[in-house]
Structures are given as structure tokens and as C-alpha cells.
Amino acid sequence: MPESYKPFIRRNNPRVPFACKFIAHNDKKVFHGEMIDLSVRGFSFSSDNNLLPVGSRFTLHMKSGYGLSPFNVRCEIKARKSVVAGSKSKKIVVKYSVVFLNLPVKSSEEIKNLIQYCRRNIA
Hints:
CATH topology: Thrombin, subunit H
Radius of gyration: 15 Å
Number of strands: 6
CATH class: Mainly Beta
Number of helices: 2
CATH architecture: Beta Barrel
Distance between the termini: 4 Å
């Protein structure tokens, strides 16, 4: 199993690497981000947008793909930190940790199936 995958499975709610762009809004502004990883409890993402404080709530619009049906879900930002993206560009991006507030049951089951698939097939 690759070293980069091991930390994801040692959690109460295992995460899997999940590179996916998304669109979201906080009822005032629309923003884009790119997911880093995903679990049934939430996800983390990176964005150039540094305007979302911890505790902010927003609606995520998720497209279908990777065995997931499209879904919309309310989310809340639990943590954020600035990180340097890329060794050459030194561009600062913000990494957010997010929890789902009302994930549909169907989406939760699909995410569980995706995680199980990754655990079985990533060696």
C-alpha cells in the first residue's frame, strides 16, 4: 500500500484521495474549489479563496463521477490553513476541512462503497 494512502485508512471515518473540482455557494457568492480527499463525514479542499472563515456554511453542488451520483449538500468549514502550493511557484492557497451537515443517504452509501473499493484495490 502506498505510504500516501495509509493515513487515510487509520481514521474513524476513512478518507480517500479524491481530486475533483466543484462549485459551491454561501447564498451570497459562488466559488470553486478542488477536493483533496473525501469521507462520509466530509472532505478537504483547496482554493484561492481566502474569504471563508471557520464556521462558514455553504451549499456544495457535486457532479456525478467516480461512482457517485450528483448531489447537493449543506456543509460547514471546521478548519482552514494557508499552504504553499508547488515548490517553484510558491503560490499560497487555502486548505479547508469541511463536514457535511445533511448528506443524502444515497450519497453516503456511494461514498462508503467508493472507500471500500479503494481500500481493496489500492495495494
